[in-house]
Each structure stands twice: as C-alpha cells, then as structure tokens.
Amino acid sequence: MRLNLTFVVLLGFCWNLIECLVVTATNKSTEPQQEYRPEGPLVMCTFLPNEFLDCEDPVDHKGNKTAKEETGSGCVKFGGSRYEDVEKTKVTCTVLPDIECFGPRKFSRKGVPCIKYSEHYFATTLLYSILLGVLGMDRFCLGQTGTAVGKLLSLGGIGVWWIVDVILLVTNSLQPEDGSNWNPYV
C-alpha cells in the first residue's frame, strides 16, 4: 500500500515536471512575434498618450545650431506664443511599467514642442499689472528688473507706462524674461 502511494505521488510529481518543462519550452520559443491586429485589444505603444509615457525633456542647445544638427534632436530656442513660432524636436519615450501595448516599449517621439514652464502665471501677472503696475510689480514678476525699477521710480511713467503694460500683457506682447511660456495651471 505504501509503495502504491509513493508511486502515485512520484508519478504526479513527474507529470507536473514534464508539463512545466513543456510550457517553459513553448514560452521561450524563438517564433517571430505575432503581427499587429488593429481590431485586437492592444494599441501600438507609439500611439499612447503622454499620460502613459515617461518622456525625456528636450535637450537645450541654446542657440547652438550645429549641435542640434549633429545630434538630430534638441531645441535651439524655447518658447513662443503661436504654434508656428514654437520649435519642435524628437525625444525618447518609455512606456510606464503597468501599461500593456504592442511593439517596442522604448521609442522616439517626434513633434514634441520646445516649451518650458516656470513659475510665471498669466492671471497673477495681469492682476499685478492692473493693481500694482504703477509700482512696477508686473515687471518684477516677469523678471525684468531693470525696467521694473525705472517704472517704480517714474510711478509707471505717470500712468502711461502702466496702461501700456496692461495692453501689452493682454495682447501677449509682454512675456517672461527667461523665455518660458505662461504656466497653464493656476
């Protein structure tokens, strides 16, 4: 009786071992990857939105056009208020770990805008300009210290400079000094 039980346990163990070896061998096969099915459940990794990707920041070449030409990517200048004015580049993106998609998980994404954001908010700067523009607070907020001191000492150009700066802000002609775009999140 004891021998039969030992034989059954040993047979069950061997059966599971053979089954594991067969499954492992099929999972590690060198068959080519299946082709992409558009009607299938997986989307191409390159089609994923930015929320599912970890992309590198664009490389800042700061006016060095030859460095951009040598590397094939990067930004010579950042910023711009119109779509046509903003330079575009390519960056390397990696799919986040728990996201399932089809294709390579690390790829190059083209058409990324060369935009950087800093602590400059349009609404805050406009309020500074309307309420404290005579004292040059809007220019201090934008990082334009020299013109801010001039505006402070002349009391907003006796009101004229104050009104002109409000108009310049509203028409988007007065931008932050560091070349960054207005931060979209207030």
UniProtKB/TrEMBL annotation:
Q: Where is the signal peptide?
A: 1-20
A Gene Ontology CC term for this entry?
membrane
Highest classification ranks of the organism: Eukaryota, Metazoa, Ecdysozoa, Arthropoda, Hexapoda
Q: Which UniProt keywords apply?
A: Glycoprotein, Membrane, Signal, Transmembrane, Transmembrane helix
**Protein location:** Membrane
Alphabetical list of InterPro entries matching this protein? TM2, TM2D1-3-like
Organism name: Odynerus spinipes
Q: Which family does it belong to?
A: Belongs to the TM2 family.
Its placement in the membrane is given as:
Multi-pass membrane protein
Question: Taking every annotated instance into account, which residue ranges of this chain make up the domain TM2?
Answer: 119-167
Q: In terms of domain of life, where is this protein from?
A: Eukaryota
Q: What is its main location?
A: membrane
Q: Where are the transmembrane segments?
A: 121-140, 152-174
- Does the record carry Glycoprotein as a key word? yes
Put simply, this protein is called: TM2 domain-containing protein
Q: Say yes or no: keyword Lipoprotein present.
A: no
